[in-house]
């Protein structure tokens, strides 16, 4: 059954690793929903967070192939509920509507958004939350014909157990 | 660490290669590697550079060298078209786990990304077909990159790596000091062997009545030939080989039941289907071995030993995964192993072999004996070479006859393009093989189609006096495709017949002694002439046009659905 799987990989900070990892998805014609690369809490080691819809069988094989990439130190896949995941989204609304439509203020308060820019043309709201929360707010604004533009980040995740500790142990024990 | 020496990057490259034990490079020069070639001129006494006639020849030669010696093959090409000409061989080496270090020149760093003359992004192009690749843009990176390249190419499951060196890095000066790479924190080439797995495996093996060992190329790569035989003998377990595993066990060993897969032996395939325990070692359950997965080995539990964790549970779900080096595992499996008679199981093997003999081997494709058949050529060659030659094949029917009827008495003696099935592989790979084991007899078996894909390498053979024996099985067809057309496409021979030149004359033009035979009565003498020739010899054999390779498991069909004739 297709569902969302999140692959987390820790790699050497080397040019080309990104391509090698995405090529594993490409070969199997799996579309990447979101991808984020950043430095992990250990200096010189990058952390990849990749989400894609596929089956457990495929993702388990994919992860083994990613593990074979020379610069990959550790890689695992997770169900969404094994991770604490947050995304950040920005919503642009015309200032005119923002001021005139009586519902906007209530919506923004209800959804816990923050105004990060307010000028005569438009207002930019920011919201942090789960993918579902972000999508719900988007739907609500769209229904009201309020939304002009929308963008969201990939997932920022943290594991319920400490994976970085496992990683550090692995690096230490290899030395 | 060696004393530091101030040298140019190009020289640092050669010194690094020498430090890794390289004494032969297959290559082709061009604008962006001229500095390296300039230094090669001074290193002739330490590095034998073989100038091929095409970069594809260089990479296949490096593969052939690596496959027979177990050492890393090194090839070199210039940027752009030189580099792209290596691509097929690199892909081939990736699928067949062949350790290669490929070196390409690249435009100067300042021109990268500008569509400069002969710039090709070979790093991106070879990313999915290399185990690792790296672009060097400064001389100071060269020694480190070469060290890492050799370490990665030959550790764990071997494979090709590529180093792309910009021209500026070749001409800059650097303080050279070489330190081999022995460890990378992100790469664990050899898994630690878990003794508990051996215990579990032995328990399963001791329980089994009809076990069979499937030996793949991993046996050769791990140097586990002896361990395999000792294990098999200790448990009295039959051994079947994959195409890539051929020659890891001598054909005349009583436990050897032949080859697996599409054109394998009836016994090996049928035993897979009747076995209660498969012990697969250093093989990857390729679709050419398994046929239809749903009906594969229906009664067997499977123990899969592989050094590559990504192969475990990839194509087939198995009962016991053993992520290990083949030799470690086989040595451990011997402990506590029970010897069983298995009289009925070996009788089954014998029956199936007899069936194959009756339906295929002893019934000539040309019963009237008017024409020479490919199977006859290979069988006669095996006898004439006393099972002692290295056999290199091209791809197609010639390859399958080569695999079926050649005989081997020692390992690393059969070289073929298994995973990629690259026509044109044979001649250059055989050339590299002969240079790798100059004291052994090396014979290349080719088809008329594949020979013409890389036949320019006759020039390399001539220039370097490579004592290679060559046989072209000329059926004037792209025979294997024609066979499929005959069997599955209503004999519609769409674009598979070839009008050919007189190949023996071409060989003669290169100064290579040659002979062309058309009559069955001349075959034996012609093969004797080839075997006895002191140097290179080229034999063209005109064979029956429509001979087919049998038995055959049609693509995607069950292993139990063997076909024996048209
Ligand atoms: C580079 C390449 N192109 C195409 C094929 C497909 N192919 C496989 S076997 C074959 C026919 C080979 O003909 P020939 O070399 O004459 O050998 P024969 O089968 O007749 O022995 C072809 C075209 C291939 N394997 N490799
Ligand atoms: Mg042919």
Question: What structural keywords apply?
Answer:
heterodimer, A: alpha+beta, Alpha-Beta Plaits, 2 domains, 5-stranded antiparallel sheet, 4-stranded antiparallel sheet, 6 helices, B: 566 residues, alpha/beta, Rossmann fold, 3 domains, 6-stranded parallel sheet, 17% strand, globular, binds thiamine diphosphate, binds magnesium ion
List strands and helices in order, with pairings:
The complex is a heterodimer of chains A (175) and B (566).
Chain A: E1 3-12, H1 17-27, E2 32-39, E3 45-54, H2 56-67, E4 72-79, E5 83-94, H3 95-100, H4 103-110, E6 114-118, E7 122-129, H5 131-143, E8 147-152, E9 156-159, H6 163-174
Chain B: E1 5-8, H1 9-19, E2 24-27, H2 34-40, E3 48-51, H3 55-69, E4 73-77, H4 81-84, H5 87-95, E5 100-106, H6 122-126, E6 132-136, H7 142-154, E7 160-166, H8 167-171, E8 173-176, H9 195-207, E9 211-215, H10 218-221, H11 225-235, E10 239-241, E11 256-259, H12 266-274, E12 277-281, H13 287-290, E13 301-306, E14 320-323, H14 326-333, H15 343-361, H16 374-384, E15 390-393, H17 397-405, E16 414-415, H18 426-436, E17 442-447, H19 448-454, H20 458-463, E18 469-474, H21 479-488, H22 503-509, E19 514-517, H23 520-532, E20 537-542
Parallel strand pairs in B: 2-3, 2-4, 4-5, 5-7, 6-7, 9-10, 9-12, 10-11, 12-13, 13-14, 15-16, 15-17, 17-18, 18-20, 19-20
Antiparallel strand pairs in B: 1-8
Bound molecules: thiamine diphosphate (TPP) and magnesium ion (MG).
Residues 394-398, 421-424, 447-450, 473, 475, 477-481 of chain B line the site of thiamine diphosphate.
């Amino acid at each position: 059954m297709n569902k969302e799987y999140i692959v987390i990989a820790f790699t050497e900070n080397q040019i080309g690793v990104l391509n090698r990892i995405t090529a594993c998805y490409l070969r199997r014609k799996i579309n990447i929903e979101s991808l984020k690369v950043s430095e992990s809490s250990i200096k010189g080691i990058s952390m990849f967070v990749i989400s894609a819809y596929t089956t457990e069988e495929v993702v388990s094989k994919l992860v083994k192939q990613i593990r074979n990439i020379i610069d990959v130190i550790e890689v695992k896949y997770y169900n969404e509920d094994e991770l604490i995941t947050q995304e950040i989204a920005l919503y642009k609304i015309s200032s005119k509507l923002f001021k005139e439509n009586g519902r906007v203020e209530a919506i923004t308060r209800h959804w816990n958004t923050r105004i990060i820019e307010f000028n005569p043309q438009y207002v930019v709201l920011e919201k942090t939350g789960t993918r579902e929360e972000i999508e719900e707010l988007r739907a609500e604004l769209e229904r009201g014909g309020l939304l002009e533009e929308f963008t969201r980040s990939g997932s920022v995740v943290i594991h319920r157990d400490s994976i970085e500790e496992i990683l550090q142990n692995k690096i230490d024990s290899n030395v | 660490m060696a004393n530091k020496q101030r040298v140019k990057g190009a020289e640092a490259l050669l010194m690094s290669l020498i430090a890794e034990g390289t004494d032969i490079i297959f290559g082709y020069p061009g604008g962006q590697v001229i500095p390296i070639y300039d230094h090669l001129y001074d290193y002739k006494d330490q590095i034998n550079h073989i100038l091929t006639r095409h970069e594809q020849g260089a990479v296949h030669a490096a593969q052939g060298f690596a496959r027979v010696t177990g050492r890393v093959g090194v090839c070199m090409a210039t940027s752009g078209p030189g580099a792209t000409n290596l691509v097929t061989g690199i892909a081939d080496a990736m699928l067949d786990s062949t350790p290669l270090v490929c070196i390409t020149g690249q435009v100067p760093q300042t021109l990268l990304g500008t569509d400069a003359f002969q710039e090709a992004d070979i790093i991106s192009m070879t990313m999915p077909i290399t185990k690792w690749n790296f672009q060097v843009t400064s001389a100071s990176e060269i020694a480190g990159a070469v060290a890492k390249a050799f370490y990665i190419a030959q550790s764990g499951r071997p494979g090709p790596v590529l180093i792309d060196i910009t021209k500026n890095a070749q001409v800059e000066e650097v303080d050279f000091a070489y330190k081999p790479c022995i460890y990378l924190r992100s790469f664990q080439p050899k898994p630690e062997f878990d003794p508990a797995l051996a215990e579990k495996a032995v328990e399963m093996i001791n329980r089994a009545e009809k076990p069979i060992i499937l030996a793949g190329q991993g046996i050769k790569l791990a140097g586990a030939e002896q361990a395999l035989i000792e294990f098999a003998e200790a448990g009295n377990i039959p051994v079947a080989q994959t195409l890539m595993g051929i020659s890891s066990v001598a054909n005349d060993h009583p436990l050897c039941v032949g080859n697996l897969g599409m054109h394998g032996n009836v016994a090996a395939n049928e035993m897979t289907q009747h076995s209660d325990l498969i012990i697969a070692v250093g093989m990857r359950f390729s679709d050419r071995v398994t046929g239809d997965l749903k009906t594969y080995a229906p009664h067997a539990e499977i123990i899969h030993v592989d050094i590559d964790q990504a192969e475990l549970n990839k194509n087939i779900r198995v009962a016991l995964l053993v992520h290990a080096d083949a030799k470690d595992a086989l040595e451990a499996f011997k402990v506590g192993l029970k010897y069983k008679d298995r009289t009925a199981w070996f009788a089954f093997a014998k029956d199936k072999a007899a069936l194959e003999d009756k339906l295929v081997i002893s019934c000539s494709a040309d019963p009237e004996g008017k024409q020479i058949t490919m199977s006859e050529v290979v069988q006669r060659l095996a006898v004439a070479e006393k099972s002692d030659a290295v056999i290199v094949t091209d791809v197609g029917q010639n390859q399958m006859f080569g695999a079926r009827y050649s005989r081997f008495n020692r390992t690393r003696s059969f070289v073929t393009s298994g995973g990629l099935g690259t026509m044109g592989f044979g001649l250059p790979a055989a050339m590299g093989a002969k240079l790798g084991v100059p004291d052994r007899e090396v014979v290349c078996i080719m088809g008329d189609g594949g020979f013409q894909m890389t036949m320019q390498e006759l020039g390399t053979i001539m220039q370097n006096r490579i004592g290679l024996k060559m046989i072209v099985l000329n059926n004037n067809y792209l025979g294997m495709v024609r066979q499929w057309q005959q069997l599955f496409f209503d004999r519609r021979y769409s674009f598979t017949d070839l009008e050919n030149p007189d190949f023996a004359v071409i060989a003669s033009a290169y100064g290579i002694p040659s002979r062309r035979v058309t009559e069955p009565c001349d075959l034996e003498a012609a093969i004797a002439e080839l075997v006895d020739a002191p140097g290179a010899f080229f034999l063209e054999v005109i064979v029956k046009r429509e001979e087919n390779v049998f038995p055959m498991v049609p693509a995607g069909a069950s292993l139990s659905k063997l076909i024996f004739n048209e």
